[in-house]
Recover the amino acids of this structure.
């Protein structure tokens, strides 16, 4: 990418999949029209969902979807890092461990015994971890799935050698800009917007649904007073915080604290 | 200006018609998503007839009134700020020529998102709103290089103000010298009078434009009883005001207590969500960024509402963000509103509208915080508002 636009050989973009549902890669595919504009300027090297063609590294930009849940994945991400100039982790799985990080709160050996006929064939790690737990990550795009505009903005910025316009303040700021009346204050609807990072454009509140926290914790999250204001009991707080970003530290700490409160019997 | 006139309830639509004939988009209060929002409205049928708002710290609900008052509520989350300074706008856009020069420079698409017309008549502005308008206008346009688009918007604005007859529990405009009585800053001022068999608006004019408009509406001369009732209206609201803040002392007080333990206490409760700054009718912070598209040929300068509760707001080149802690960010918000605004612009940055109190998800109350830091307050201490159900 050092040569910038117009350099002799176009930058190569690779997309890699780890433990995930492919939803984030689909977001990339849904950028079809925009991607056509850059087709001549970027060479898509490895894109499991779009083409079977693959090119040996090195890659200028690697987009990595999914979390690390097996010993093999832990090795593979190190190889990809070694072959990538810029590594971008995309989605809740790659940035926080995803929904599958619920295993971090449970006993994985017990799951495999229950689910598989021959659990001995299963090689899996006890935890689902984000890419950044294994290698250096240059940029993270949050969300389950990622936001289309944020993805295009990140690619545009990387191509233009500028800082991408990504902010990690609360969803509320986007919600107010958009002009959505606050569901929590105006209707008592539980909403994780105040503790969740922006990026979706406050999508759920604009459809009358409280924020589910799919972009993970905002830059300085403070979940405790929100749990109290919403009136969540311990179980409800645990359920709200343990979804797409259950293992993101701020959400994990808050859900563990709520669970501990539940165990000692207090509602709050 | 001219003598006060009386508009019958059924003739109030003539005012909308007159505004429409002059090419104005009428913006006013209307019920949307169980909230009284400000939006484009066609006539009195869009006003929140018979609806009121119940507000507390961190809580807002609509309720049915027993009468059919058109302005029988206080404030929603929106303020005129959405029109004075649109929340998300493109300031200019341009293309890059092969030689690297910019071309096709354009400010045509500069207005914000849809629903942000340029020429508006704002109906329903309360006293605090008129003060907030002036404060924000001073900030946006009082410098040496006012934004021409914002200047045009400001000049085109017509204001039909409404006198408050009731104050909400989060209002403290009286403390800030910003209400509840409307005294200036309007083209037309309406006072709604309503009893069993009488529903009229006393109309006063505050500008030539206002007089010209009112001339197109059927009116009659006001009787002395009606004038007395109109005068009593804001006085009634003033009696209902519960929250107070000592505006004369608060600046010295805050400056003298920048290390007060209350800052840490409020930081424990504060979500740093920024809702208070977003709903505040005078908070003016925006981020301005140049954004290129995928081809690298197009560039846009985007301006968006921002907040001092966002970490990047205090980002300093080479030094990172200056205000990392929630404590320092809450202190920035409160000291700017109530103290340093005065050093910067010669007025308080707060009109006591109470929006930041109502719309704070955890009900943090700027008047209580001032009290906790030691502001001299008058009247009985208020019970901490409960946030049940
Ligand atoms: S609806 Fe949710 S995201 Fe929107 S302002 Fe309220 S709490 Fe924040
Ligand atoms: S600081 Fe609060 S009360 Fe004062 S003008 Fe802003 S929103 Fe209204
Ligand atoms: S209080 Fe904060 S958001 Fe409001 S004008 Fe001041 S610095 Fe800006
Ligand atoms: S005072 Fe309330 S509205 Fe303002 S940032 Fe803190 S929690 Fe959010």
């Amino acid at each position: 990418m050092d040569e910038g636009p117009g350099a002799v050989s176009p930058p190569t973009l690779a997309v890699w999949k780890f433990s995930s549902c492919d939803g984030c890669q689909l977001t990339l595919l849904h950028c079809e029209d925009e991607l056509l504009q850059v087709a001549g300027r970027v060479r898509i090297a490895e894109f499991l969902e779009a083409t079977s063609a693959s090119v040996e590294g090195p890659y200028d930009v690697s987009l990595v979807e999914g979390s690390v849940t097996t010993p093999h994945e832990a090795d593979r991400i190190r190889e990809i890092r070694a072959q990538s100039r810029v590594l971008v982790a995309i989605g809740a799985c790659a940035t926080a461990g995803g929904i599958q990080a619920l295993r971090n709160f449970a006993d994985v050996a017990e799951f495999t015994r229950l689910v598989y006929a021959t659990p001995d064939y299963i090689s899996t790690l006890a935890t689902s971890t984000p890419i950044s737990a294994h290698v250096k990550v240059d940029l993270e795009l949050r969300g389950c799935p990622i936001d289309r505009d944020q993805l295009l903005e990140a690619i545009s910025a990387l191509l233009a050698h500028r800082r991408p316009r990504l902010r990690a303040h609360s969803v509320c700021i986007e919600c107010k800009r958009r002009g959505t009346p606050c569901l929590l204050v105006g209707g008592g609807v539980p909403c994780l917007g105040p503790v969740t990072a922006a990026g979706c454009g406050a999508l759920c509140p604009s459809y009358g649904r409280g924020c589910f926290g799919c972009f993970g914790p905002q830059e300085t999250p403070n979940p405790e007073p929100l749990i109290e204001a919403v009136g969540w009991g311990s179980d409800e707080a645990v359920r709200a915080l343990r979804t797409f970003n259950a293992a993101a530290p701020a959400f994990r700490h808050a859900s563990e604290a709520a669970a501990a409160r539940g165990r000692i019997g207090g509602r709050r | 200006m001219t003598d006060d006139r009386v508009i019958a309830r059924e003739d109030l639509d003539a005012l909308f018609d007159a505004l429409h004939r002059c090419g104005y988009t009428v913006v006013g209060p209307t019920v949307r998503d169980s909230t009284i929002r400000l939006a484009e409205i066609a006539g009195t049928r869009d006003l929140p007839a018979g609806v009121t708002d119940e507000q507390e710290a961190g809580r807002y609900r609509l309720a049915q009134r027993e009468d059919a008052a058109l302005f029988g509520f206080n404030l929603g989350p929106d303020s005129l700020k959405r029109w004075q300074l649109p929340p998300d706008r493109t300031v200019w856009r341009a293309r890059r020529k092969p030689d690297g020069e910019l071309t096709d420079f354009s400010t045509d698409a500069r207005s914000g998102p849809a629903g942000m017309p340029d020429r508006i008549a704002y109906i329903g502005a309360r006293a605090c709103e008129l003060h907030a308008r002036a404060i924000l206008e001073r900030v946006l346009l009082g410098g040496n290089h006012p934004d021409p688009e914002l200047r045009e918007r400001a000049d085109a604005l017509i204001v039909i103000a409404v006198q408050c007859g009731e104050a909400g529990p989060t209002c403290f405009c009286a403390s800030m010298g910003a209400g509840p009585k409307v005294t200036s800053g309007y083209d037309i001022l309406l006072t709604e009078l309503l009893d069993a068999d009488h529903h009229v608006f006393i109309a006063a004019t505050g500008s030539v434009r206002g007089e010209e408009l009112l001339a197109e509406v059927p009116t009659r001369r006001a009787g002395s009883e009606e004038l007395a009732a109109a005068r009593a209206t804001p006085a009634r609201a003033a009696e209902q005001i519960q929250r107070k803040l000592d505006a004369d002392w608060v600046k010295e007080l805050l400056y003298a207590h920048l290390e007060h333990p209350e800052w840490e206490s409020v930081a424990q409760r504060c979500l740093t969500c920024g809702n208070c700054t977003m709903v505040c009718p005078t908070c003016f912070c925006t981020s301005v960024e140049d954004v290129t598209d995928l081809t690298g040929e197009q560039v846009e300068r985007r301006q968006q509402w921002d907040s001092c509760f966002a970490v990047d707001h205090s980002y300093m080149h080479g030094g990172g963000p200056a205000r990392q802690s929630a404590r320092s960010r809450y202190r920035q918000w409160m000291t700017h509103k109530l103290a340093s605004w005065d050093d910067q612009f010669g007025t308080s940055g707060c009109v006591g509208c109470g929006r930041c109190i109502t719309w704070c998800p955890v009900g943090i109350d700027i008047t209580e915080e001032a009290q906790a830091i030691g502001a001299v307050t008058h009247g009985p201490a208020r019970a901490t508002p409960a946030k049940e159900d």
Chain A touches chain B at residues 5, 34, 37-38, 41, 152-153, 155-157, 159-160, 162, 165, 167-170, 172-173, 176-182, 184-188, 191, 193-195, 208, 218-220, 222, 225-226, 228-229 (CB under 8 Å). Residues 171-263 of chain A form one domain. Residues 249-263 of chain A form the longest helix (15 residues).
